[in-house]
Amino acid sequence: DTAVSQTPKYLVTQMGNDKSIKCEQNLGHDTMYWYKQDSKKFLKIMFSYNNKELIINETVPNRFSPKSPDKAHLNLHINSLELGDSAVYFCASSQVSVRSSPLHFGNGTRLTVT
Amino acid sequence: DAKTTQPPSMDCAEGRAANLPCNHSTISGNEYVYWYRQIHSQGPQYIIHGLKNNKTNEMASLIITEDRKSSTLILPHATLRDTAVYYCIVRPYNNNDMRFGAGTRLTVKP
User: Fold this and answer.
1) Mean pLDDT of B106-110
2) B44 and A88: CB-CB below 8 Å?
3) DSSP 3-state assignment of A64?
4) What is the C-alpha separation between B110 and B108, in angstroms, rounded?
5) pLDDT at residue B99, rounded to an integer
6) What is the DSSP letter of A84?
7) Which residues are CB-neighbours of A61 under 8 A, at least 6 positions away?
């Protein structure tokens, strides 16, 4: 009964491949997010997705695209993977309609591009 | 471009209170103070948040100064499992964006 779950936990792939990371939340939240944590351990927001409104961090390459089949899922597709994409990716969710609602995070997907 | 300043690291003896400071001198009236922690590359774990009054839950206490320019997270009886990076974040209540800084690495020692 994990609140925010991501699959896979580990992903090793080669440069140039296309891959997806899945995220599901069972909290009934209205907003989901993707964060990236690089080797220097800084956590940076990539996207937030609320009621089909996508807010993109402008520094994210367009090789990255979030896809939300429904309110409980926000998957991350990455095309033409590069070495610099290696990082830990965290999914999160919150109920933005509730004032000051905190974010709840999954346990991450460690992506290694070789 | 985090709006908070935290010491990079702190130590605490097991069983003692851990007091983690955070400066947020440019905080706006509609911004809350949130605390998260991250234990060894797990997902960030929500601890507590507040606007201006002190808060306490089962994990910690949050003390916010009257001028709201700084706050302290208190873990009343630190255990070895509290060793983690602790993040203090300010965010408007109606904003999706939770921006993390470098945080404070707390090491609880036996």
Assistant:
1) 97
2) no
3) strand
4) 7
5) 87
6) G
7) none
* B9 inside 8 A of chain A by CB: no
Return the residue in A4, A43, A52, A112 with the most chain B beta carbons within 10 A, the one to mutate for interface testing. Answer: A43
Q: What is the pLDDT of residues A26-60, one digit of tens each?
A: 999 999 999 999 988 889 999 999 877 888 777 89
Q: Which residues make Cβ contacts (< 8 Å) with residue A89, sequence separation at least 6?
A: A6, A21, A34, A35, A36, A37, A76, A108, A109, A111
Q: What does the pLDDT read at residue A53?
A: 82
Nearest CB among B43, B51, B96 relative to A90 is that of B43
Res A29: pLDDT: 92
Return all residues near A31 (Cβ < 8 A) that are at least 6 apart.
Answer: A48, A49, A50, A93, A94, A95, A96, B96
Rounded CA-CA distance B85/B36 in Å is: 8
Please tell me which of the candidates A31, A90, A107 has its beta carbon nearest to residue B96: A31
Tell me the C-alpha distance between B50 and B52, whole Å: 6
Residue pair B38/A90 in contact (Cβ under 8 Å)? The answer is no
Residue of chain B with shortest Cα separation from A87: B41
B-interface mutation test, from A6, A88, A105, A111, most B Cβ less than 10 A away: A105
User: Tokens standing for A97?
Assistant: 């309609």
